C-alpha cells in the first residue's frame, strides 16, 4: 500500500489540542487524515481508533447510527490519557459512498436492515479496506496499539497487516429509538461486541 503523507498542523478541539496529519492514496484518489495527541512513537502501546467517515453521524448528528458518538468518545478518551490517535478513513457507508448510503437509508425506511440494504444495492455487507492503516501508523511511529472498537474484524484486519494489537478497548455509546435495530444488526450479523465482552 502506497500512501503519501502531505502535511500536519495543530487542531484545537473541545477535547484539547490535537495534531492533524493529511495523507493521500494516489491510486484511489482519496484523502485520509489522522489526528493525534501526545507522543505516538513511545515504547508504550498507543490508544487508537480507526474511524470510517460518516458524514451523517459525524457532522450532521444523525441518530440512525452510533458513529458520531463513537468519534467524540474516542477523542475524549484520548484526551483523558493525553496520548493517542484516530485514523479517519474516507470510506463512507462501510465503503459504499454517501449517495449510496442515502439509497440504503431509503431501503431501511422500507424495512430492510443495514446489511440487507447494502446487499440489495449490490454491495457487500462491509466494503471497507483497512490496509491504509499500516502506513498511517508507521508514519506516526506506533509500534503497538490498543484499539478502541466494538468490531472484532478491525482487530483481525490490523493483526493481518502485522500490527501488534495488544488490547481491544470497548467503545461504549448509548442506544436510542432510531438506532436500536441498527445496533442489533451490527451485533447479530456483523459480530460487533457491545458492553465489556
Protein architecture, described:
The structure is a single chain. This protein is an alpha/beta fold and about 200 residues long. It has one domain (about 5-90, about 130-190): Rossmann fold (3-Layer(aba) Sandwich). It is built from eight helices and seven strands. The protein has helices spanning about 55-60, 65-80, 90-95, 100-110, 115-120, 135-140, 150-160, 180-190, and strands at about 5-15, 15-25, 30-35, 45-50, 85-90, 145-150, 165-170. The radius of gyration is 16 Å and the shape is globular. The chain starts with a strand and ends in a 7-residue tail after the last helix. The model has no long low-confidence stretch (mean pLDDT about 90).
Secondary-structure map with pairings?
Elements (H helix, E strand, L loop, with lengths): L3 E10 L2 E10 L4 E8 L8 E7 L2 H5 L7 H15 L2 E6 L2 H4 L2 H12 L4 H7 L12 H8 L3 E5 L3 H9 L3 E6 L10 H11 L7
Parallel strand pairs: 4-5, 4-6, 6-7
Antiparallel strand pairs: 1-2, 2-3, 3-5
Helix pairs in contact: 4-5
Give a short summary of the structure.
This protein has eight helices and seven strands, in the order ββββααβααααβαβα. The chain is an alpha/beta fold and about 200 residues long.
What is the radius of gyration? 16 Å
CATH names the topology as: Rossmann fold
Order of strands in the sheet with the most strands?
1-2-3-5-4-6-7
Return the average pLDDT rounded to an integer. 89
Low-pLDDT regions: none
CATH class: Alpha Beta
Number of domains: 1
Main beta-sheet strand count, sense and barrel state: 7 strands, mixed
